[in-house]
Design a protein that fits this description.
Layout: E1 3-6, H1 8-11, H2 14-31, E2 39-46, E3 53-61, E4 64-71, H3 78-106
Parallel strand pairs: 1-2
Antiparallel strand pairs: 2-3, 3-4
Helix pairs in contact: 2-3
């Protein structure tokens, strides 16, 4: 990653911070060389009812930004974690592709 930010919601729990670091490593593997252009941001909150802890991953490759929110438990499940990371990454790529297509068509 170009840069990684862990907000207070992640940092306040050593276990959660460690899981987010591991997930960032996995994200680098999933994304490959393109990761060097992307900024990642992690945070954690409780759901609206306060019963469930949620993690938010934001990926930025300006001007695009994609965000995914999922249960903390998914950080411990390798298959679900891979699914979540790829989903946020694909959202970012989709937005980038849409912008590039618009720019291409505007230039014709």
């Amino acid at each position: 990653m170009k840069s990684v930010t862990y907000h207070q919601g992640i940092k306040q729990s050593p276990d959660l911070y460690g899981l987010a670091e591991q997930a960032t490593h996995r994200l680098n593997e999933e994304v490959g060389p393109a990761a060097a252009q992307v900024e990642a941001e992690w945070d954690a909150t409780n759901d609206n009812g306060g019963r469930r802890r949620l993690v938010t991953l934001t990926l930025r490759d300006l001007p695009e930004e994609a965000r995914g929110t999922f249960p903390v438990e998914d950080l411990n499940n390798p298959q679900m974690l891979g699914f979540r990371l790829r989903h946020v990454w694909m959202d970012l790529l989709r937005d980038r592709n849409h912008r590039l297509l618009r720019e291409f068509h505007d230039g014709e």
